[in-house]
Amino acid sequence: MLRLVVRRLLQLIPTLLGLSVLLFLWLDRLPGGPASAILGEKATDADVARINRALGLDQPVYVQYWRFLKRIFQGDLGTSVQTGQPVWDEFVLRFPATVELSLLAMIMAVVVGIPLGYLAARKRGGWVDIGAVSGSLVGICIPVFFLGLVIKEILAVKLGFFPSYGRMDTGINATDVTGFAVLDGILTGEFDASWDALHHLILPAVTLASIPLAVIVRMTRASVLEVQDEDYVRTAESKGLKRSIVRGRHVLRNALLPVVTSVGLLTGSLLSGAVLTESVFSFNGIGNFVKTSIDGRDYPVLVGFIMFIAMVYVLINLLVDVAYSIIDPRVRVH
Amino acid sequence: MSVATKTDKIQRLAELTAGSETSTGASLWREALGRLKTSKMAIIGAVIIAAFVVVAIVGPFLAPHSPSAQIWRGEVFPNKGEFVGARGENWFGLDHLGRDLFSRMLVGARQTLLVGIVATLIGLVAGFVIGIVSGAAATLGGETGQRVDSVIMRFIDMMLALPSLLLAVSIAAVMGQSLTTVMIAVGVVQVPVFARLLRGAMLVQGGADYVLAAQSLGVRKRRIVLSQILPNSLSPVIVQATLSLATAIIEAAALSYLGLGNPDPAIPEWGVMLAQAQRFFSYAPMMGVYPAVGIIITALGFTLLGEAMREALDPKLKG
C-alpha cells in the first residue's frame, strides 16, 4: 500500500512539471504581456524595454522558466490583478466554500445515484429503469448553467423556498473558525448559522450534482447488470445463500468497483463544474472567483487555478487507487 | 516435407485465420447495423439528428427575418422588464435587441452543428494520430516502442488532468474571442479522450491470435497495424465521436456563458444566444428556453444514437 502511494506521488512530478512548461509557454503567448498591461497602449519602445528588463523578461526563455518554476514551488502563484492579493491567499480563503459545495453535491449524487442505478438494474425494463435511464440521458445533455438558472428562477426567485444567491444571509453573524460555514456553526453552537449556510448550499449542490448523478446511475446500472449474470452469483444463489447476502456481498460489492473509479474522476470534474454553478448562484467560492477572473482577464488566477486543480485531480486519482485496493483484494497482489 | 511447402501451409493457415478474423469483423458491423435498426434509442436519436441537420441546411433560407435586423427595436425595453413575446409574425417573440428569435434559432442551427462537427473532427483527427502512434508503438514497437508509448501517455494523462473547461478557456485567452476559437478549444479537449480510447482498443487487439499469426508470417508491421489491428479497434472511437458531438455542443454553450463565444451578432449560435439570455432570464425566460431546448434535444439525439451504437457493437450482448 505504501509503495503504491509513493509510486503514484512520484508519478505526479513529471505531470506537474510538464504542466508548468505548458502554462509557462501559455503565459508567454498571451497577447499584450505585462509591460503593455502596466504602461497602457501609449508606451514607448524604450519604456517597454525598461519594464521588461526590470521584470527579467529580456532574459532567455529557460531562465525565465526556471524562475517561474521556483516561484510556483515556493507556493507563490503570483498576485491577482483584480484584488491585488496573492492568488494563493485568495484560494485558501475561498476553498472551503467550494469543498463544502462539491462534497454535498457528491454525497447527493452517490446517495441517490447508487440505489437508483441498482434498482433500475434489478427491475430491468420496469418503470424505475426507464425513468432512471431517460432521466440520466437528459441530465447529461442539459448545460449545467442553464439547469442552475431554471432551478434558481423557479425554486428561489418565484417560489422563495430557497435563497437565490450567496453563502449566508447578511443578517447572520457567524464566527469563522475553519472557513467551512456549516461546520463552523456546529463547532461554535451557532446552529442557525449552520442551517442558513446549508439552506444556501442546497440549490447550487443540486445543480452541481446533476452530471455526476446521471453518470453514477448509468454506471451502477450497467455494472450491476453485468455482475448479476456472473457465474459466482449463480453459484452463490444455487448453494442456497440468503438473497440479501448474495446481493450485498456478491453483486453490489463487485458492481461498485467501476463506480468508485468514476466517483473519483467525477470529483475532479466537479471543481470545474463549480465555475459555472457558483457563478449562477453568486456563491463565493473558488469557482466564482475564477469566473470573474475570466471576465477580467486575470491570468495569474487562471494559471494558479489550473495548477491547483491538476494537483487536486492527481491526488484524487491516488485516493481512488487506494480505495480500489481496499475494495478489491486482487489489485493488492499486483 | 520441404521448407517451401511448410511455409506455404502456414501461409494458407494464416490467411484462413486472418481471413476469418476480418470477415467476422465485417459481419460484426453488419450485425451491429441490424441491431441498430431495431433499437428504439437509435431510431429516436437518428430522427432527431436528421431533423437537426435539415434545419441546419435549409434553416437560413427559411428564416423570415434577418438574424441581425432589429425590426422591433422601439418595442423592447429590457430594463423595464418588457419583452415582446410570441405573436403573429414573430413566432418565438423578440430578443433583448429586438431581433426575431425564430429566425435566429433557424440560422443558429447551422453554426451550432458546425461547432459540434468541426470541434469533434479536430479532437478525432489529432486524437487518432496520437492514439495510433501510441498503440502501434506499444503493441509492435518492442522496448523502444513501449518507452515512446509511455511518454505519449504521460502527456495525455497531463491533458486529462486539466479540467476541460479551463483548458478551453486558456486556449481561448490566447486566441481571442471567436467561433474558431470555440471550435479549437472544444476540439483540443477531446484529443486525449480519443487518443486513449484508440490506444486502449489497439492494445487489446494487439494481443489477439490473428496479430501473432500475421507477425509470424512476417507481414510488415505497418501493414499489421493499418489493415489488421486498426479496423478491429475502430468501434469505440466511432461511438465516442457520436457522443462527443453532443459534448461539443454543450461545452461550446458553456464557453459562451463564460463570455468566450462568437461575438458576431450576424452569426447567431444557440450557445451564445443562451448565454446572452441568462441576464434577462427573470423577465423573458423563453428567450433562453428556446436555444436551451434546441441544445438539449440535439445533444440528446447524438447521445441516444451513440449509446445505441455502443450497445449494438458490444459483442457481449450478441444473441
TrEMBL record, chain A:
Bilayer-crossing residues are: 9-27, 101-120, 127-151, 197-217, 255-281, 301-327
Transmembrane helix found in the keyword field: yes
Gene3D superfamilies per the record?
MetI-like
Task: Read off the Pfam families from this record.
Answer: BPD_transp_1, BPD_transp_1_N
The record's family statement is: Belongs to the binding-protein-dependent transport system permease family.
Q: Which PANTHER family match?
A: DIPEPTIDE TRANSPORT SYSTEM PERMEASE PROTEIN DPPB-RELATED (PTHR43163)
Q: What is this protein called?
A: ABC transporter permease
Organism annotation: Streptomyces heliomycini
From TrEMBL, chain B:
- Entries under PROSITE patterns matching the protein: ABC_TM1
One Pfam family name is: OppC_N
Which UniProt keyword terms apply here? Answer: Cell membrane, Membrane, Transmembrane, Transmembrane helix, Transport
What InterPro entries does the entry give? BP-dependent_transpt_permease (IPR050366), MetI-like (IPR000515), MetI-like_sf (IPR035906), OppC_N (IPR025966)
Alphabetical GO CC annotations of the entry are:
plasma membrane
- Where would you find the membrane-spanning parts of this chain? 42-63, 113-140, 152-173, 179-198, 237-260, 280-306
User: Where would I find the ABC transmembrane type-1 domain in this sequence?
Assistant: 109-306
What CDD domains does UniProt report for this protein, alphabetically? TM_PBP2 (cd06261)
Can you tell me which family this protein belongs to? Belongs to the binding-protein-dependent transport system permease family.
This protein is called ABC transporter permease
